[in-house]
Amino acid sequence: MNKPSHLIRLLFLLVFFLQFDVMAENAKSAQITKEITQIGTNEMNNPLLQLSLNQFPSFVNIRAEHVEPAVDHLLAKNRNLIKTLLESTQNYTWDNFVLPLELMDAELGDVWHLINHLNMVHNTPEFYEAYEKALAKITVYGTEIRQNKALYQAYNTVQASDEYPHYTDAQQKTIENPLREFKLSGIELSQEKQDLFKKLSTQLSELESRFEQNVLQSTKGWFLEVSDPERLKGLSAEVLAASALKAKEKGKTGWILTLDQPTYVAVLTTANDRSIREQMYHAYMTRASKDFPGGAQWNNSQLLLQIVTIRKQLANLLGFENYCQYALENRMVKNTHHVTQFLSNLLTHARESAKQELATLQEFAQKEYHLAKIEVWDVPYLSEKLQHQKYTISQEILRPYFPEETVLKGLFSIAHNLYGITIKEVQNAEKWDNDVRFFEVYDKNNALRGKFYADFYTRPNKQGGAWVGTAKTRLIRNAEQQYSMAFLITNITKAVPEGPQPTLLSHDDVVTLFHEFGHCLHQILTKVDYPSIAGISGVEWDAVELPSQLMENWAWEEGALRLISGHWENKTPLPTEMIAKLKEAKNFNSGLFLVRQLEFALFDFHLHANQNIASPQDVQQVLDSVRAETALLEIPEYNRFQNGFTHIFAGGYSAGYYSYLWAEALSSDAYELFKEKGLLFDNTVAQKFLTEILERGGSQDFMQMYAKFRGREPDPTALLRHYDLST
């Protein structure tokens, strides 16, 4: 990192001449560290403030009214500590300055992670209101910290000290990262511009939260009631049972189809009734828009315009031409041209394959279903049917072979084979829902490495999709180790309680589970004891998907499939011929899939690079221009996909959706090393991945870590080989 050398020398000389008794300074440091590890006794009745090092409080006792007081208490405590550090410390060091701030941030982070998590998995109007108020305070505090010039100067002083070159890479990273964040938060702006930056940042956080909430509410705000069983032909018994249960819960007969992801995907891919597929597509693609059949009260059109506008203003305040340049400061790929070149190269290769795949699909539709024209809501259904005809394989044929318990047991066995870890379930753990499960992870020496909660099933008031969130960060406090903990979330349809079958996963569900488990391992296997760079924290956003996407590969390998499969009735593993067909079908319509992902990534990047977005129509025009290059079918005029695109408008992937494809290129390149060595289930390469990537968290520049693992920088063309597309 480049340093402002003249200023650094002045600060160094100032510090040098103000040094005093080291023993007194160390005693003060110990007292400060002790202070920040103690919870304020006046707030002990608040369960959110009763977090011990390696445990959570009773989740059921946490209510909306606890959120703001807990956040207020911790923010006040943090502000007091920062004031004490800055006023009483004269010789800033790692021990008396950086480490206390690390521990302080971790305490706030552990509480905020929990609040944010509960808002996503157990959302109620009351809790969301409290969450939103607390989020505004957290945002103000964050901006306030990053614009604190005294803190900035103190970090600069530590970096300029004689001790700094002797710090470990991880310690240096905990100093470099805040200095970068200070600059990206306007620390060098005038006071007037700093105030504007702070105001805009607060507004942006509130808008992003509202955008996400609107998508959640609109997803819950519509359902399709079906009374004629003929209209539901093609749907699996599991989906029918779940839909009948939803109807029963609403006091209705028949079936209710909702917009949660498992139901929506099942309908689009398997429902024979074309009109139902179109109805579901229309509702899903108009969520949070004025055309949503459930009502326009959750319309995100103006919100997303405001979000893009504020991001542009923030970037411009810092001297960047556009938000993309600003966003890449924290990424593995540092240049906007490299991103667009990467995406364009993929599109060049994928588009021709996608055209051929669509032509084949059209021919199949004409021959088998007498459809002269394919519509977008036909593609998943026809693809599923054609895949079944071509490979005699489908998600529903595979589902009986993937009972939940068999998949989990096999997944944990694969992790043991690769990394030497053992995963044990803990009974009677505190949890927020009866179906939640809790696990501990031990290494080959039977030493505890981390813990994770698993919340697998879809339910009302739970956000759709799948993700891994930080529960606790790894650290050492008062000589006691806190282990890293994670929340692993999916949205699988649970078996009906009175049914004969256990919960059965589609192979898509299996791949998703493997993906999220890869994130989970990244979080809990870290050996970094500094919270800001432990686990997934501090990892460049376009690299953080590498461990998860790499893990997906084992969901396709024959040896792994035998471990994770067993027919729910007779325990028979997936037969050899079905495994062969599954692997043959792996890259079926991969061109169409990749082009669709490129549409998302290009829209995101072009939108955030555009300086002329002044209306929702301008946003639509950007999307239309991207679709002119990517869309092979006519998109209905009512489609408002952007209004529900939480990844970039609320989920942290702004100017970064390309990260999925970039990380997949990394994972494809990394997996080729496993294949080159012939060690798919030997832990030699896996151990290198463990020590160079998983255990290091964000403690080094990711390009350096990857090069140490791979022996060179990544080869992006590996992604094309991964999809069997010509390079």
Mind explaining what this structure looks like?
- By secondary structure, this protein is α+β, with helices and mostly antiparallel strands.
- It has 5 domains: 5-146 and 148-184, Neurolysin, domain 3, CATH 1.10.1370.40; 222-284, no CATH class; 306-393 and 590-656, Neurolysin, domain 3; 402-539, Collagenase (Catalytic Domain), CATH 3.40.390; 660-722, no CATH class.
- It has 28 helices and 9 strands.
- The chain has helices spanning 5-17, 22-36, 64-88, 94-121, 125-146, 149-160, 169-184, 191-220, 237-249, 261-270, 274-284, 301-317, 323-327, 336-369, 379-391, 395-398, 404-419, 507-524, 546-552, 558-564, 576-584, 590-609, 616-630, 646-649, 658-677, 683-694, 702-710, 718-722; strands at 223-226, 255-258, 422-425, 437-442, 448-457, 467-472, 475-477, 480-482, 484-492.
- The strands form 3 sheets. The protein has a 5-stranded mixed β-sheet.
- A hairpin with a 5-residue loop joins strand 4 (437-442) and strand 5 (448-457).
- Helix 10 crosses helix 15 and helix 26 runs antiparallel to helix 27.
- It is globular and about 80 Å long.
- Mean pLDDT is 91; it is low at 1-42.
What is the compact description of this entry?
The chain has 727 residues and is of the alpha+beta class. Helix content is 56%, strand content 7%.
